[in-house]
Amino acid sequence: MPRAEREREMVAKATELFAVRGFAAVSMEDIAAAAGIAKPLLYSYFGSKEGLFAACAERAGAELRVHLRELVEGSDLTAEQRLWAGIEAVFAFVDRHRDAWALLYPSSGGSAGPVGEGAHQAQRAMEELLLSLFADTARQAGVGDDAAVHARPLARGFTAATIAMASDWVESAREPREVAALRLMNLAWMGFGQLLEGRMWLPDQGDLA
After folding, report:
1. CB neighbour burial string for 159-190, b if at least 16 within 10 angstroms, e if fewer
2. What pLDDT score does 40 carry?
3. Cα–Cα distance measured from residue 79 to residue 65, given in angstroms and rounded to the nearest whole number
4. Domain 1-47 classified CATH 2.120.10.90?
5. Which segments of the chain belong to CATH 1.10.357.10?
6. 3-state per-residue secondary structure call for 64-124
7. How deeply is 202 buried, as exposed, middle or buried, from its count of CB atoms within 10 A (0-12, 13-18, 19+)?
8. Per-residue pLDDT at 49 exceeds 60
9. Per-residue pLDDT for 202 more than 90?
10. At residue 208, does pLDDT exceed 50?
11. How high does pLDDT run on average in the chain?
12. Which of 61, 62, 190, 194 is the most buried (most CB within 10 A)?
C-alpha cells in the first residue's frame, strides 16, 4: 500500500477511536489493531500518540475549512448570514469533537508538543480562511482597499475569540451550543456590520461615514 494511502487509513481509524472513546482512553495498541497493522508502524509514521492525534486534528480541521468555504462562498447569503452560518458550523464541529477540542485548545492555555503545534497550524489556517472571506465581503460591500487592510488583524482577533468562547463552552457545558454561537455572533457583528458599511468608531468623533 502506498505510504500516503496507508497514512490516511491510520488517521481515519485513529480519528474514529478518539471520537468515540476520547484521547486518554485510546492506546496505540488499540489503533494498530483497528488499522490491522503492527504498533511500531504507527510510531514510525507519527512518532507518538500525540503526533498521531495532531495528524487527526489537522485532517478534521482541513475538512471543516473546506465545509466553511463551500458554505459561505457557494450561496447568495448576505455578509451577516454568511458569518452566522459559519459560526454555527464551527460550534457544530466543536460539539462533535469535544474531547479533541479540549485537548487542542484547553482554557488554561496552549497545549505543548505535537498537539500544540497542530493546534497552532489549525489556528493559522483558519485565520487565512477568514482573511480571504472578510476581504472579499468588504470589497463586495463597496469598501475600498484602504479599509480592507483591516481584514487580517480582524481575522486573527475573531479566530482567537472563537477559540476562547468555544473552549469556555466545552469546559462549562452549561448551555446549548446555539446560545454560545449567538453570543459570539453578537460580539462580532456589532463591529463587523459597521466596518463592512465603511464606518469606524474614533475617539471623540463618533461614527464616521
Report:
1. beebbebbbebbeeeeeebeebbbebbeebbe
2. 94
3. 18
4. no
5. 57-198
6. HHHHHHHHHHCCCCCHHHHHHHHHHHHHHHHHHCHHHHHHHCCCCCCCCHHHHHHHHHHHH
7. exposed
8. yes
9. no
10. no
11. 80
12. 61
Question: Where in the chain are all domains bearing CATH 1.10.10.60?
Answer: 1-47
Output phi, psi for 60, to 5 deg: -65, -40
**Number of Cβ within a 10 Å radius of residue 36:** 9
Q: Which CATH class is domain 57-198?
A: mainly alpha
Grid coordinates belonging to 26: 485510546
Band the pLDDT of 181: cuts 50, 70, 90: very high
CA distance 189 to 80: 7
